[in-house]
Each structure stands twice: as structure tokens, then as C-alpha cells.
Amino acid sequence: MHEKLFPCVVCLNHRYFPESANAANVVGATSFALNVIECLEKQKLLSGIILYKRDESIKVPILDEHQTKGHLIFTLRFNFNMKPICIKKSIEEALLKMKLKQQIPYYPIVYYQTDTLMKYHPDYIPSVVTHHGPFVDDFIKHYSFSEACVAYETVEKTKHLIKYQKEGLSSLIKLKNAYVLQHSELQRKYLIASGFNEKKILKITPPIQTPCTNQSHIRKAILDFTNPNADNLIFISTVARIDHFKNIDLFVKSSLILLEQNLPVKIFIAGDRLHFDSNREALYQLIPRKHEEKFFICESLSKNELYSLFCLLKQRAVFVCTSRYETLGITPLEASLSGVYTVAPDIESVEASRYMPENCKYSYTVSGLAKHLQHIYSSEIYRSKYQYYFVNNRLSYNKFEKSLLCGLEKISNELHSLLISH
């Protein structure tokens, strides 16, 4: 354990805490939080976990203590109609119990996955938040309010998110001992423009892990479709959720242009949970019957299956990122560092693009992507290792760990100074 570093408590939505280490991520931001937990555990800096859960059937917060996978966990059930002071006291109670169990003289730093509970956070206890977004206001600046309503599904939900994100940001700005772990320039610019103290923003290298696992993790139907002995070039896109932000429609429409030219390509898409198949069905509706056999669309892959697929397809496939707005985007970077040639939109609202060489970015239109994929097919650049070395020079799991610990060291030093001065 780093003696100078304050221990930490991780707070996240209970839905995003996986049942197993191999479970598919419900949202992309889950991966970041779980890597934070892994790093803190390794350094013996993890005091416990708070999982919050909305429950409209109760009138006061309920705090349950239990042990899961060796973690001390408090599940906080609450709803937004409760008195803020009641929720705040429940958070204080959980943190005090962790402090006493750890037998430490001061409260641990609370790492929040997002700002949902920041307005209830006790001001005297240090906190840090990643704040993944997507920020509705910032999305509107890049696109429009009407498109935001499409992305967030309804006008009411969009306005609700704007309101609560502003409240969360306002709470974050007011907290004396609050810091932000910056995982993207998109995030940094928005927070500074909104009035957050730039000196309290700590840059973190994204946590990218690329374990190579064997083919036994890949189900037979996928192995048959991606047959390594066939001559087809495979285009793939895997996401936690198929939604307006990921814009998988663009990928399908661009792929159809290549299929109309009789190019020997196949398209593999994975996204959404198993029983939520409406978005996958909507993608199939875009595909003419004559090309259906060239597509394989299934639910999100487990981590083992995803990494195994990347290992199987390196230097014989192309990962296609089609997001229109993404404050990080871990999977495209994992694909690239696994040796799968990856392309991303040439737009500033997609953070993953910042890590890519210029020739791996495409004009963000159906024809622009189709033209780029045609060039990749004809030039066979996907066989090159140049992109891998380019991205590997900028990203690694070790760089993430080092940057996280450096950030926590800076926070700890400032907190120690405050303790001494008082």
C-alpha cells in the first residue's frame, strides 16, 4: 500500500456492477470504473464500494451492508423525492463505517463513476468523479436540441437530463474537496467552460486492456461466420448499446455499398443485451434479403468472447467506430491494441479519434466511410502493424495505473497539507 495515498471508496450504479468479471459491460463507462477498482485493489487502497439503487417504493433511504467477491459493499436504496439531507446522512453513515473498519484516522476519497450523487456528497469528505457524460448541453452544441431529443428518446427525458446534469455540475463546482479524473479532452473543455476549476482536473490515461484468450471462448456460430480460412475481409463493430450515439446505421449502409460492388466482405455487429433485440431487428430491416447472409448481428459479447474474437481477427479484419458523440470509447482502442485495424470518424466529438493516425479517420458520411473501407480493402493496409505501434505508444494499462496513482497522489498531498494546516 502507498503510505501517502488516501484509501478510496468507489460509488457506482448497482446495475453497472457485474455479476462476474467476464460479464459484458452494460454501458461503456462501466469498464473505466471496474479498472479503477482493479487498480485500487492491487495497491490495497480500496476501502469498499457503495452501490446506489433507485427505489420508488420507499420514503427514506435504506442502507444494506454485505460482502461480495471479497468487497465490503453498501447498497444505498433511495429516490430523488427524498430529502437531500437524508440521502447525505446515509452516504456519511456508509463512509464512517468503512473508515472505522479500516481503522484509518481520516475519511477515504470517494470515487464517483458519475455525478448522480454528488449533490448529496458531504462537503468535508474528499471526492473525485470521472463524469463520463454524454453531456446533453455539449451534444446540443455539436448537433442540435432536436437531435438530442432523438438521442435521448424524448423531449421530456432530454430536458430532465439537462436539468439534472446542470444540478450535478453545480454541486461539483461548489464542493471544496472535489476533483475530476479527466479521461478526454471533450470532457475537460466542457467542464472548464462550465466553471470548474482547471487545477482540480487530473488527466488520466484511458484503461485499455487487451488480454489474448483462446478461441474456445467464441461460440461456434461466430467462428463459422468469421472463418479464418476464408478470404473474406471482416468488418466488425461491437458496442454496449445500439443507440443514436453509436450510429450503427451508418456502418450498415456503408457496408451495403461495398456489397453492391461484389467485394468479398462480411459484417459482424454485436450490441445490446440478449433479450433487448428491437434495435438489432431495426438494423436487419436496413439489409436487403440478398445480402442478409453477409451480416451477423447478435447481443453484446462477454469480455472473454470479445477479446478472443479480436485475437482471432487481428490483421484480417477492420473494427469500425461510427459514434457521433463519445467522451471516450474504450472498445475501438481495445480493438486497435489487439491488432485489429480500427477506423474512427474524423470529428472532434469522438475522443477515440484523438489516438488514431490521420489515415485511420474517415469523412463522417455514408459515402465517406464506404470510400475509406474500399481503400482499406484494396490497399490491404489492415495487415500493417503501423496503427498498433502508433496507438500502443500512447495507451497501455500500465500508463493508466501510473496516471491514476499520480492523480491520487496529488489529491492526497493536498489533503495532507489541509490536515496539517488545521
Fold topology:
Blueprint: E1 8-13, H1 28-42, E2 46-54, E3 62-68, E4 71-78, H2 84-102, E5 109-112, E6 127-129, H3 136-142, H4 145-151, H5 155-174, E7 178-182, H6 185-193, E8 201-203, H7 220-225, E9 233-238, H8 248-260, E10 265-270, H9 278-284, E11 295-298, H10 303-313, E12 317-320, H11 330-337, E13 341-345, E14 361-362, H12 366-379, H13 386-392, H14 397-421
Parallel strand pairs: 1-2, 1-5, 2-4, 5-6, 6-7, 7-8, 9-10, 9-12, 10-11, 12-13, 13-14
Antiparallel strand pairs: 3-4
Helix pairs in contact: 3-4, 4-5, 8-12
GO molecular function, one term: glycosyltransferase activity
InterPro entries: Glyco_trans_1 (IPR001296)
Keywords: Transferase
